[in-house]
Amino acid sequence: VQLQASGGGLVQAGGSLRLSCAASGLTFGNYAMGWYRQASGKERELVAVISSGGSTNYADSVKGRFTISRDNAKNTVSLQMNSLKLEDTAVYYCAATRIYYTTRSAAYPYWGQGTQVTVSS
Q1: Measuring CA to CA, which residue among 30, 32, 28 is closest to residue 96?
Q2: Is 24 exposed, middle or buried (0-12, 13-18, 19+ CB in 10 A)?
Q3: CB burial class (10 A; 0-12, 13-18, 19+) of residue 60?
Q4: Cα-only R_g, the chain
Q5: Phi/psi-derived region of residue 55, left when phi > 0, alpha when psi is between -120 and 50, beta in every other case
Q6: What is the DSSP letter of 11?
Q7: Which candidate, 94, 97, 99, places its Cα nearest to that of 111?
Q8: How many angstroms separate the CA atoms of 47 and 35, rounded?
Q9: Which sign does the torsion angle of CA 121, 62, 59, 81 carry?
Q10: Residues 9, 119: Cα–Cα separation, whole Å
Q11: Straight-line distance from the first to the last Cα atom of the chain, in angstroms, rounded to the nearest whole number
């Protein structure tokens, strides 16, 4: 299984970015997908997850600003990030699990390499 995240970059506060994660080596439609992030000096934390059936869950800190979606035909999961804040600065990772729906990072055996998101003032 390979996960390739892309779309990170430098953006001003209030701006938007769209992250994408391309998956290969798995039957994508059977996997829940998650986005996690890790800021410098902090632990990795949940951003959003989407089940194989399309159910979603968001961290309270991003609700109403971020949207996770998946395209099973293209084997991709995306994270649309709007109204970005300084505290959204982190390395963002996509992850995959055969479990139908979970927010526990330990339940995700497959991880991408991460993409840096930096929000400036």
Answers
A1: 32
A2: exposed
A3: exposed
A4: 13
A5: beta
A6: E
A7: 94
A8: 5
A9: negative
A10: 8
A11: 37
94 is written with which tokens? Answer: 């996509």
Structure tokens at 18: 């769209």
Matching residue, tokens 């979603």? 56
Per-residue model confidence as pLDDT tens digits over 11-28:
999 999 999 999 999 999
- Work out whether strand 9-12 and strand 115-120 pair parallel, antiparallel, or are unpaired: parallel
Amino acid letter for position 26: L
Tens of pLDDT along 103-120? 999 999 999 999 999 999
Q: Which token pair is 22?
A: 């391309």
Query: What CA–CA distance (Å, rounded) separates 84 from 65?
Result: 8
Say if residue 9's pLDDT is above 90.
yes
Q: Phi/psi at 52 (nearest 5 deg)? A: -65, -25
- Give residue 101's pLDDT band: very low, low, confident or very high (50, 70, 90): confident
Q: Is the dihedral of CA 80, 20, 114, 55 positive or negative?
A: positive
